[in-house]
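User: What would this chain look like folded?
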Amino acid sequence: MGSYICATVFFHIIPEALIARYESTAEPANGFLIKLDTPGPYLMVDATATETADWMRQVELALQLSEDEGIAFSVLLVGEHWALALAYDGQRGPIAVYAPDARKLIEQVPRQLLALEKALLELFPTEIDPDELDALFGEMLEGVTPVDEAVTQMLSMLGCPPSWLRWSWYETIPEQIFTDPDLLKLVTPLGEAKQFWEE
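Assistant: Here's the prediction, encoded as structure tokens.
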């Protein structure tokens, strides 16, 4: 699971509004919304996006669902390829994309991460330590800290527990809940996933 991540963490959202918007706009609507902490943040996985590593679908969903002053941080990690994206209040934010076999993309990563860092500090001025975030992104660029670990450390600054990783892939969620039914209180099935629960 650690080598394949496709998910979005939402901050400052009303879960009921997000659920209604997702189920009315996503085609198809089939996913899970997981409460990571109280009163938030929330993590959302979409079946189509995770099954096909469809980054553009994930980003577009995050953009639509971040309306009404929400903040969405999307993560894609497939092997050595990764992408990070911000959206807030229904607006597209900075995106950083890395592919080991694409030289032009690699050259743009430092500038993209700098834009991402600036936006995070503006959106979370009291939660994130600028020096700590700068050092973390530097370690990620140098390959000292793996991307999933760097993202976990960054999200922890925002009150997001490391458990976000366990929920980051759609197919793993039903198995986790069957193993530990107490986890069901954290998970809301969306769209077609509701049918699976009813069965």
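Residues 103-123 form the longest helix (21 residues). If you want, I can go into more detail on any region.
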